[in-house]
Amino acid sequence: MPRDASPEERNVALVREMFSEFASKLDASKLDVYHTPDFEMFSNDVHWDRRTYDEFHQKAFRERKALRVRYHDIFGQGDRVAARVDITLVDLDDTETTVQVMLIAQISGGKIRRLWELTFPPWQ
Fold this sequence. Notes:
Blueprint: H1 7-23, H2 31-34, E1 35-43, E2 46-49, H3 50-62, E3 64-77, E4 80-91, E5 96-108, E6 111-120
Parallel strand pairs: 1-6
Antiparallel strand pairs: 1-2, 3-4, 4-5, 5-6
């Protein structure tokens, strides 16, 4: 990232890096790298605290062979990043499920503090 990058460019880069280094690599050890200790997610009107989010990803990553992210749109404004992505989950038996996601991430101190998203189908 260039030193003269705007805060918005840095925030977008953080979200892209989170998807490539944490999610796509199924690497739950990177939860602390990309999320604040007080992280919260609101997904389809369901509130997830940091512990619930961590446990979900640790379990989900053990049950997956791969995860692919396809961006439709991503942009930043202030401390927020909005994106529209498709996340394709590949289970150990090669079954694929694609989840359509619209999200807004709030960045604080170089990490994701809050995440608001609508998904279809829902993660639950």
